[in-house]
Amino acid sequence: MAIEFIIAIGIMVLALVALITVGVLMGKKVGSLVKEMNSNQTTVQDQINHFTKEADAIKSTVDQMTTRVDGMAKDVAVKQAYLSEFTQTTALFGESINDLKQNSTKAVSQLFSSSNKKAPDTPPRITKVGKTALKMYQNRKKKNKKTFFI
C-alpha cells in the first residue's frame, strides 16, 4: 500500500470522526432547542387558555349587567307610568281643592243663614249627670270616713 492511500484513509477516518462529533453536538443543541420549543408552546397554550377563561368571565359579567339594565329599564318604564298617573291624580285633586275654595264661602254663608235656632237655656243632660256623680262621690267619701275612723 502506498503511503498516499494510507494518508487518504487517515484523512477519511478523521473526517468521519469529525462529522460524527459535529453531528452529536448538533443533535444535542437541536434536542435542547426542541425541548425549549415544546416548553414555549405549552406556556403559550396555557396563556391562551387563561385569557380565554378570563374573556368568558368578562362576557358572562357583561351579559349579567345587560340583563340587569334591561330589568331596570322595565322598572323605570313602570315607575314613569305610575308617576304620570300620580301627576294626573294630583292635578284632579288640585282642581277639586280650587272648586272647594270657591264654593266654601257659599256653603258657610248658607249654613249660618239657615241656623236661626237658639240654644236651650237649660243645661245639657251631661252636666246634670256630672253633678249627680259628684254628689255620689262626696256621699261615699263621708261613709268611708265614718267606717275607717270609728
Folded structure, characterized:
- The chain has 150 residues and is mainly alpha-helical.
- Helix content is 91%, strand content 0%.
- The longest helix has 112 residues.
- It is elongated.
- The mean pLDDT is 84.
Question: What keywords describe this structure?
Answer:
91% helix, mainly alpha, transmembrane helix, 150 residues, membrane, transmembrane, 2 helices
At a glance:
The chain is mostly helical and 150 residues long.
Helix count? 2
Estimate the helix proportion, in percent: over 70%
Derived structural class = mainly alpha
What is the chain-wise order of helices and strands? HH
Hey, roughly how much beta strand do the residues contain? under 5%
What is the straight-line distance between the termini?
171 Å
Main pleated sheet: none
* Radius of gyration from the alpha-carbon trace, in angstroms: 57 Å
Tertiary shape: elongated
Unreliable segments (pLDDT under 50, ≥5 consecutive)? Answer: none
> Overall mean pLDDT score?
84
- Compute the number of strand runs: 0
Q: Based on the structure, what is the oligomeric state of the protein chains?
A: single chain
Write the layout of secondary structure elements.
Layout: H1 3-114, H2 125-148
